[in-house]
From TrEMBL:
InterPro entries hit by this protein: MFS_dom, MFS_sugar_transport-like, MFS_Sugar_Transporters, MFS_trans_sf, Sugar_transporter_CS
Transmembrane segment boundaries: 111-133, 145-167, 174-194, 206-228, 248-265, 277-295
Record-level GO cellular component terms: membrane
Origin: domain of life: Eukaryota
One example GO MF annotation: carbohydrate:proton symporter activity
Bilayer topology annotation: Multi-pass membrane protein
Alphabetic keyword roster: Membrane, Transmembrane, Transmembrane helix
Keyword Coiled coil: no
Species this chain originates from: Aspergillus niger
Annotated PANTHER family: PLASTIDIC GLUCOSE TRANSPORTER 4 (PTHR48022)
Location (main, coarse): membrane
Protein name, per record: Fatty acid desaturase family protein
Amino acid sequence: MGLVTASGGNYGLSYLSGSKQWRIEIAIQFAHAILLMIAGISNPESPRHLARLGNHTAARTSLGRLRGLAADSPELDEAIAEVHIWLLEDAEQQQKARFRECFEGPNLRRLVLGCSMGFHAESTGIVFFLSYSTTFLAGAGITNAYLITFIIGLVMSASTLPSIYCLDHLGRRSCAFIGGTMMLIVCIVTGAIHSAVPLSAASQHALIAGSLLFIFAYASSWGSLAWLVITEAYSSRLRTYQSTISMCFYWISQWIFGFITPYMVDESAGNLGVNMMYVLAGFTVLSLAWAYFYLPELSGLTQAEMDRMFDEGIAAWKSKAWKREQKMAVEAINRTGSLHEIVTVVDKGN
C-alpha cells in the first residue's frame, strides 16, 4: 500500500508545476514519518524483549495490553508462561549456535539459497519497473506515464494476494517456474514489438500491457517467494544469523540494480530504451535456471523435515519427489497406527 500511496501522490502532484511538486511530496513523507513515530511511542514494548531483560512485571503488563486480557486473568498467566518457556528454549538454542556454523556443511547451502534468492528476485527487473517506470514510459513516448505508474502500483498490491494461495498449494518451485516463464514471455514479446515498430502506437500499447502483466506475474510469484525463502530456509538455531545475512544481501542486490539501471537506459549512457526488455529476459532466464538447480520445494515441510532434507543433501530438482515420499511414509505410519489401535480395541472387546 505504500507503493500505491507514493505513486498515487506522484500522479496527483504531476498536475502541479514548479517546486510545489517536490515540496508537497517531501511534506507527505514527513507526515508518514511522524505517524510512524507516534505509533512506535504509543505501542507497547515486546513482552518477549522485556522478559529477556528480566523485567517480568512490564512484560506481563505489555502482554495483557496486546491481547486485551485483565491483569489477573488465567489466560494471561498461561500466555506469560508460554513466553518464559520460549525464552528458555531460545536461550538454549542461542547458546549452542555459533556464527561460523552459518558457513559450514548444509548450513552454507541454506545461506547461499537465501542470499541468491534475493539477488535473483531483484535481477528479474522489478527495480526497473517500480523505480524508473515513469521516466522510462515517458521516454518511450507515453504521455500519461504517471497514471500508468499508479496503475502498476495497484496491480502490484492486488497481485500479491493470489500468492498466498499459490505458494502453499502449487508449491515454491512451481510458482517460480510459472511466474518466471510469464515474465520471460512478456519481456521478449514487448521487446520484439518495439523492435518491429519502434515508437508506434502498437509499441506503446504493448509496453503498457507488458509492464502490467510483468508486475502481475512477479507479485504473484517471485515477489512473495523471495520473502518466504529468506525467512524459512534455515534451521531454528541459526535462523537469526542467516536470515539477517540474507536480508542484507537482498538490500545490497536491490541497490546494485537500482544503481546500474539508469546507466543502462539513459540516452547519455547505455541508451537501451525499450531494448532493456531483452536484458531483463536474459536475467529471467538465469533466474529460472537457478530455480531449477538450487531452489528446493519447501512448502508443507515441518522444521524437522526441512532440516533432514538439507542434511541428506537432496538436490533441488529432486526435492519435490523427496517431499512426496516423506508425506507418503508419514501417512503410512499413521494408517498403521490407526489399524493397530482398531485391532487392539477389537481384541479387548472379544
